[in-house]
Structures are given as structure tokens and as C-alpha cells.
Amino acid sequence: MQRLLYPLAVSVLAVAVQAQDTPEKLAADAGCGACHHAEEPRMGPSWQAIAERYKDQEGAAAELQEKMRTVSKGAWGEAPMPPVTPDQLTDDQLSSVIDWILNR
Ligand code: HEC
């Protein structure tokens, strides 16, 4: 029985993962692109610059996630970044977007 169930569980999981939006789409839908571009600075730093700044910092993803829920200010310049609300992105979605930014 277990032999049968395991592949079944794996394929159900695979379908569930595919059905989720990609982090790129989540970020686009949440409006991050209004202030962030992949390579060029806009009102906010580019995803590239963020990835470079934090690439060797342990715990950066968790730290950024916490910051995104409040106001981020002074890390890059004078312009503050408004908080990302759970309506825009759930914790899991925000976490996948941050991983996507940091691992480019
Ligand atoms: C209204 C403009 C605006 C929007 C919309 C916006 N950002 Fe930002 N973001 C900024 C600014 C400005 C900064 C720099 C803040 C600072 O200097 O601390 C920033 C910084 C960041 C940082 C780096 C923070 C740090 O402390 O180094 C991350 C990560 C980030 N944004 C992710 C996102 C994500 C994900 C979204 C979409 C859910 C988003 N931003 C939407 C303006 C924006």
C-alpha cells in the first residue's frame, strides 16, 4: 500500500507546486515593479543590487521579511518603502519573493 501511496503523494505535490504563481508574478501583481526594476535603480534599489548587498549575510531573508512588514527607510537612501501588507502578499508569498530577489 505504501509503495502505491508514495508516488501518488509526490505527483499531487508536484501539481500543487506548479499551480502556484511564480515569485516573479507575485511581485508583479503586488506592484513591486512600480519602484523596483531588475537591474536599474528606480525609486527603490534594483533586485540585482539588493541581491548583491545581502548575498553573504546570514539571516538576511528573515530580516528583510520583517522589514517589509514595517517601513524600510535609510538602508539605500531617503525614500522610504511602504509596508507590504498581508493582503498584497501572505507570509509564504513574501518569503518566496524575497528568496527570488536574493537568489538571482
Ligand atoms: C512606493 C515604492 C516601492 C514599492 C511599491 C516597493 N518598494 Fe521596495 N523599496 C522602496 C524603497 C524606496 C526602498 C529603499 C528603502 C531604504 O532605503 O531603506 C526599497 C527597498 C526594498 C528592499 C531592500 C530593503 C533593505 O532594507 O535593504 C527590498 C527587499 C524591497 N524593497 C522589496 C520590495 C518588494 C518585494 C515589493 C513589493 C511587494 C516592494 N519592495 C515594493 C520602494 C518601494
From TrEMBL:
Keywords: Electron transport, Heme, Iron, Metal-binding, Signal, Transport. Heme c binds at residues 32, 36, 81. InterPro entries: Cyt_c-like_dom, Cyt_c-like_dom_sf, Cyt_c_ID. SUPFAM superfamilies: Cytochrome c. It comes from the Bacteria. PROSITE patterns: CYTC (PS51007). Residues 18-104 form the Cytochrome c domain. Residues 1-19 form the signal peptide. Binds 1 heme c group covalently per subunit. The keyword Metal-binding applies. GO terms for molecular function: electron transfer activity; heme binding; iron ion binding. The keyword Cell inner membrane does not apply. Pfam families: Cytochrom_C (PF00034). This is Cytochrome c-551.
